[in-house]
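Subject: for your reference before the review

Hello V.,

The reviewers asked for a structural picture of the protein, and I figured it would be easier to keep everything in one thread rather than splitting it across files. Below is the amino acid sequence we used in the manuscript, unchanged from the supplementary table.
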Amino acid sequence: MLKHPLVIFGRRISNLIGGLLTLISLVLPWYFIDNFGPYPSHTYSAFEVASSNPRAEIVPWLLLFGGTVSILSSVGAVLSIVALLLSTGSGIFLNNVPPTCPSTGCILPTGHAEIGYWLAWVGAVISLIGRLWNPPPLLGKIFRGRV
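And here is what came back from the structure prediction:
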């Protein structure tokens, strides 16, 4: 059943779609901060969020590599999931925006994850369904020495 051509094709497409979604997530907003004060609200990309937290600077690069590898193999999805767990565990979404302190009291800025973060999770999970090693036909022939 798993060797059926439609199943193999579906798993290849899963690798492609999952890898592309992970790569696209890097250019979308990852985090939104609403400051309720003199500081403007702002959305941040994955690279901007990681640059504000030294413990998580490698996360977008791992996602870039994981998304690229996910196109050919579900091993890249595992790397992407590790990067996403690292970003969550390292406090990547902690911001350095100071609180606003008017005369009525201090207001802490609030924020939440945006579409890029969630799209990276969706892409990694979709790519996990894919094949373990999914070379394009010509690349597979080159590796097997049949060109």
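For the response letter, the relevant points are probably these. The longest strand covers residues 31-34. The mean pLDDT is 77.

Happy to draft the paragraph if you're swamped.

O.
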